[in-house]
Amino acid sequence: MLELTDENFEKEIQGADKPILVDFWAQWCMPCLMLGPILEKVAGEYKDKLTLAKVNLDTAPQISQKYRIEQIPTVILFKEGKPISGFIGARPEPIIKEWLEDILKK
C-alpha cells in the first residue's frame, strides 16, 4: 500500500504501471476506518491488477482540493494517470469487488 502526499501524488499516479485505487480518508472519520480494512483485503485479492494507495486529507490538503474531495471516504481509481471511476462512502466488500470487476474490464 502506498501513502500518497501532496509531494509524491503526481509522480506515483503518473508513473504507475497498473491502476491505482486511491482511498481519500482521515483518522477522525469512522466510515473511513471501517472501509480501510475492506479495501486492503480487496486490494490484496487484486494485487496483480491494481495498487492500493491512501491519501490522508489532514496531511495532503492540496491533492484533496485538486480532486474536489468534499466527503470522505472517497475512493477513486486512477488508470494511466487519470481518474476513471470512484465512489463516496463506505461500501460492503461484494459491492466493491463488483465495481472493480466492471471497471477493470474496460
Automatic annotation (TrEMBL):
Domain Thioredoxin: 1-105
Family membership noted in the UniProt record: Belongs to the thioredoxin family.
Matching NCBIfam families: thioredoxin
GO molecular function: protein-disulfide reductase activity
Protein origin, superkingdom: Bacteria
Keywords: Disulfide bond, Electron transport, Redox-active center, Transport
GO biological process: cell redox homeostasis
Record site feature (Contributes to redox potential value), residues: 30-31
Official protein name in the record: Thioredoxin
Organism: Candidatus Nealsonbacteria bacterium CG23_combo_of_CG06-09_8_20_14_all_39_25
Catalytic residues (positions): 29 (nucleophile), 32 (nucleophile)
